[in-house]
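To: structure subgroup
Subject: Chain for Friday's discussion

All,

I'm putting the inputs and outputs inline so they're searchable in the archive.
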Amino acid sequence: MTIRLFALSFDARDPQRLAEFWAGVLGFEVADDPYGVAVLPNDDTGFRLRFLPSESEKTGQNQMHFDLTSQSLEDQEATVARALALGGRHIDIGQLPEEKHVVLADPEGNEFCVIEPGNNFLADCGLIGALASDGSQAVGCFWAKALDWPLVWDQDEETAIRSPHGGPKITWGGPPVAPKLGKNRLHFDLAPPADGDLQAEVDRLVSLGATRLDIGQGEVDWVVLADPDGNEFCVLPPR
């Protein structure tokens, strides 16, 4: 078994508050985490959400965001209303008036979209339809190899991958890729299987184009790397 996507981690000034928001929006369960707070999926999402304490301020748009799906206009309206009631808010990131998706932010300003019904690309996905990312074609191909997930879209420098077991798609929009404004507030945590080898996995990821990174983590039992676009991610001990 190859390395797996264990978690999508958020830097959070109030991890408990943010975990409760996302658990409420998604219908997931809040759980303890050794380093913060976790939200555990009850569907085929395949990875948990982790909310880790951070004092850093958000600057600019995040490199990735959720696209939530809708089965009907009433379903879309209900998801938006639920998010607003839990502390979300409408935001303007330059979307056009004729666009039918709704752009929101969670209580700490992390952007996400509630997609209108009838979106063919996300038709067979659950509530989390996609993790939409700003990134190059090369980084999409890197993550396909890193996770051993097939490319389900590769056209005009836009790419998408999806676990063979289903769950959300992870997409990269191609150029122009926005300049990086410091450490990303969202990052992937990967984990080898229980009988896996952390160092061997790190070496494999480096051979695919990752680079080792020092973000001041000090002496820890995980390894920090960056993908070919410079986005940070962590490789945790086998589990």
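Points worth raising on Friday:
The chain has four helices and 16 strands.
The first strand starts at residue 4 and ends at 12.

D.
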